[in-house]
Amino acid sequence: MSAVSLSIVFSKIDIREIVVMFRKIGPFYFLLASLLYILSLLVSTSRWKLLLPEKFTFRRLFSLYMIGSFFSSFLPGVIGGDVVKAYYLNKDAKKLSLTLASIFMDRYLGYVSLMVIGIAAFPFTLSFFGGSAYKWIMPAIFVSFVIGSFLFFGLKIGKRFRTVSEFYDYFVSLKERKDVIMKAVMLSFLIQFMGFSAVALLASAMGENIPVLLLFVFLPIVITISSLPISISGLGVREGSFVILLGLIGVRPEVATSLSLSWFFSIFIGSLPGLGAYIRHTGNQK
Questions:
Q1: Closest CA to 9 of 272, 250, 281, 236
Q2: Which of 198, 201, 220, 217 lies closest to 209, judged by CA?
Q3: In the chain, where do the E strands start and end?
Q4: Helix 96-121 with 15-51: angle, nearest 10 deg
Q5: Is the distance from CB of 70 to CB of 278 less than 8 angstroms?
Q6: Rounded to an integer, what distance in angstroms lies between the CA atom of residue 34 and that of residue 117?
Q7: What's the CA gap between 24 and 184, in Å, rounded?
Q8: Cα gap 98→167, rounded to integer Å
Q9: Strand, coil or helix: what is 52?
Q10: Rounded to whole angstroms, what are the CA distances from 197 to 172, 190, 215, 227?
């Protein structure tokens, strides 16, 4: 799917112009965006540590986060690395339900913050959409998320599955720790703003002035679509989404594609320490 999506995108643009855009950004801004990504992983690790009832060192969890981030670049969607994290954490926790529940909640709270940002900014961006039907994507995603959350947490439809049913014991215990939930949510907002800042930084380096409010709506849409396990690390799907959405405000396809790819490469560069963490981890297990 990635190859097909990318071929479609590249068939409609001038690849030479993408090279020009990458040169505009330069290594400094690439590395700065990568640093923002690493900082977001540090904050994400703090959130995950809060959500884990068992005691794990921050260093251990950060190492697993880096490993998961690295493998996300080669697995379907953008949550493939969570499977890798779950595998290694379960070796220590020895309880699959606890491992999966903590990773699920870590991801879920991050998505809660993303949806809140997107739907809060949406009313202020309607003028940019004009009469385009794409303006209803953000509300549709938000409503779907709310319904899905109600079905999973309210009606507990997951209880019919043995592994997932044990999640609810974890959720009940976490519900009583309201201070932990509040801290985790606040950290989630910080993580999202770091991601938005990286995209804004790369766009500015390219000479593009994209309104921040639009990024607050566009990026939740892009992240949701590219999270679907239909392409490797969202490649192609993410670029197509950038082209369509940024095209609504007159951004040329070459520029939108360059911005999307530069964001992906900055994340990939930021995840490279995860390869070293993986090598060290596997070496220690021998």
A1: 236
A2: 201
A3: none
A4: 120
A5: yes
A6: 22
A7: 37
A8: 7
A9: coil
A10: 35, 10, 9, 20
The rounded distance, in Å, linking the Cα atoms of 268 and 266 is 5
- Alpha-carbon distance 258 to 206, whole Å? 9
> Residues near 101 by Cβ (< 8 Å), separated by ≥ 6?
166, 167, 170, 171
Q: What residues contact 77, with CB distance under 8 A and at least 6 apart?
A: 226, 227, 228, 229, 230, 231, 233, 234
With beta carbons less than 8 A apart as the criterion, state whether 109 and 188 touch.
yes
How high is the pLDDT of residue 191?
A: 96
Select from 191, 196, 206, 194 the least CA-distant residue to 259: 206
- In whole angstroms, give the CA distance from residue 259 to residue 75: 21
Half-sphere exposure of 195 (CA within 13 A, CB side): 25
Coil, helix or strand at residue 76: strand
**pLDDT score at 46:** 95
d(CA 154, CA 194): 31
| Residue 127 burial (CB count, 10 A) | 7
Give me the residue spans of the domains in the chain. Answer: 2-278
Residue 184: closest CA among 83, 107, 115, 92: 107
Residue 8: predicted pLDDT:
64
In 3D space, the residue among 1, 6, 32, 11 whose CA is nearest the CA of residue 236 turns out to be 6
For the entire predicted model, the pTM comes to 0.90
Find out whether 234 and 77 touch, Cβ atoms under 8 Å.
yes
- The dihedrals phi and psi of 52, each to the nearest 5 degrees, come to -90, 120
Blockwise average pLDDT, block size 10, the chain, 286 residues: 60 78 90 96 94 83 91 74 80 71 90 96 90 91 95 78 73 84 95 96 91 93 87 81 91 91 93 89 64
pLDDT at 110: 93
Q: What tokens appear for 167 in the block?
A: 């999640």
